Amino acid sequence: PLALGLYTVNAVYGDTITMPCRLEVPDGLMFGKWKYEMPNGSPVFIAFRSSTKKNVQYDDVPDYKDRLSLSENYTLSIKNARISDEKRFVCMLVTEDDVSEEPTIVKVFKQPSQPEILHQADFLETEKLQMLGECVARDSYPEGNVTWYKNGRVLQPVEDVVVINLQKLVNKSTGLFTMTSSLQYVPTKEDTNAKFSCIVTYYGPSGQKTIQSEPVVFDVHYPTEKVTIQVLSQSTIKEGDNVTLKCSGNGNPPPQEFLFYIPGETEGIRSSDTYVMTDVRRNATGEYKCSLTDKSMMDSTTITVHYLDLQLIPSGEVTKQIGEALPVSCTISSSRNATVFWIKDNTRMQTSPSFSSLQYQDAGNYICETTLQEVEGLKKRKTLKLIVEGKPQIKMTKKTNVNKMSKTIVCHVEGFPKPAVQWTVTGSGSIINKAKETKYVNGKFSSKIIIAPEENVTLTCIAENELERTVTSLNVSAINIPEYDETEDRNDDNSEKVNDQAKLIVGIVVGLLLAALVAGVVYWLYVKKSKTASKHVDKDLGNIEENKKLEENNHKSET
């Protein structure tokens, strides 16, 4: 009622209250003053400011000592707002002829602390009225109100089911309120995991507000009505697994002991809520049961133990000779249909291995692997390390290099274990580089040298392993004598043709040399007879030499 129609300043507890003097400063102002009114209406002056001397004086009022500040425009500020500052303050402006007054009402607000649920029950029992806890909100002004909630919905009082009692206490020294609301409640099984909370509704400078407590969940006790048995292991069980059976009752607290019934056993085995079987075998397949210790409320489940057997013949490390036969079999026995596949040297094979005549490329590490697709982790594998041995086999080829200054000789070698290769040279000439070997793959590799023979030479390739020593030689013409190149695909007939052509070239060269010798003798016999004849002879001999060189060049071109 005091504030009705009057200017009101809303302040927050502990903040600074600012009250402007809402009067126009008149001409001839002498001074300004502030006062507040006691409940009985008597005034108490607290601040004075002269308009001429500009000095400020504060009255000796204990409640406002060191808390006041009066500005030049006569705005009064009060530090550290208190509940006791809720008064009617008056601004006075005084001239020689008049005194003007303008009242201001101060309202102070204090937000309560976040409410807490104290003295909480350790647990709740169904069908029993008991104290759940107390919701406490401290230091509020003005006083607030408390409301209880369950799962976000208001709990309304219900006789003998929901009983709420609210108490409000005021601190005489501060004037602040503390609200305490107790809740008595009859829980049900459905209250398991229910969230209880309380909300305080209070007033602030801007209107009504609320603040909520942290939710609390209570342990609700209720009796067991049903027993359930379950397998805690993976959904599919295989031989060698550990299997854990768990029996549970739906009461709270749950039963701590049960009876477990194992296939083939007539009496139950007393145990805690779990029963463990280690390293199970296929004969553990069957029906399992559990019950309360008084043999009531029984439940059952069926367990299937899957198995997988694999036999590989032969297995381990097997050594065979090239060309031999090797039968291989991989047989499976399983609880379900199994898939079988083969792996060779980390690469999956499209078909099962079959060896009617072993080759070097058949050597390697073979794995027969089988899995049950429905059973995670159930797979078996066995290995076969196949070694194919063979004596060294050699084939030599030769090729004239593009620069026509050297020839490449290659020794193609087969055999296992890998043969060691040596080269020997018969005749003049020098090996331009050391022997280079290609990668050893499937029992095959090549050793290569580059040579520039000054005359015909014989190259010998020697390959030797633990089984045998093999020697093969190849004739190579001098570098200035062209010859057909040989590749590893060329047969022996081609080699003979090259040798025949080389012999023909040598015969032609020898014939030309003999013809030149005869021409020289004829020249010597006739030179004495006459110069003219001698000239004719020289001319003829010159023609013969030219024809000889032309013929030789033609033969080289043909070659």
Short key terms for the protein model shown above:
disordered C terminus; Immunoglobulin-like; transmembrane helix; 43 strands; 559 residues; disulfide bond; 11% helix; immunity; cell projection
- Named CATH architecture of the largest domain: Sandwich
Distance between the termini: 135 Å
- The shape is elongated
Count of individual helical segments: 2
Structural class: mainly beta
CATH topology group of the largest domain: Immunoglobulin-like
Percent of residues in helices comes to 10-25%
Beta strand count: 43
Largest sheet: 9 strands, mixed
| Gyration radius, rounded | 58 Å
What's the CATH H-level superfamily name of the largest domain? Immunoglobulins
What is the CATH first-level class name of the largest domain?
Answer: Mainly Beta
Report mean pLDDT, rounded to a whole number.
86
Total domains, how many?
A: 5
Share in β-strands = over 45%
Which residue ranges are poorly predicted, with pLDDT under 50 across at least 5 consecutive positions?
488-503, 530-559
Task: Tell me what the structure shows.
By secondary structure, the protein is mainly β. It folds into five domains: 8-109, Immunoglobulins (Immunoglobulin-like), CATH 2.60.40.10; 116-221, Immunoglobulins (Immunoglobulin-like, Sandwich); 227-303, Sandwich (Immunoglobulin-like), CATH 2.60.40; 308-388, Immunoglobulin-like; 391-476, Sandwich (Immunoglobulin-like). It is built from two helices and 43 strands. The strands form eleven sheets. Strands 31, 33, 34, 35, 36, 37, 39, 40 and 41 form a nine-stranded mixed sheet that branches. It is elongated. The model is unreliable at 488-503 and 530-559 (pLDDT under 50). Keywords: Adaptive immunity, Cell adhesion, Cell membrane, Cell projection, Disulfide bond, Glycoprotein, Immunity, Immunoglobulin domain, Membrane, Repeat, Transmembrane, Transmembrane helix. This is CD166 antigen.
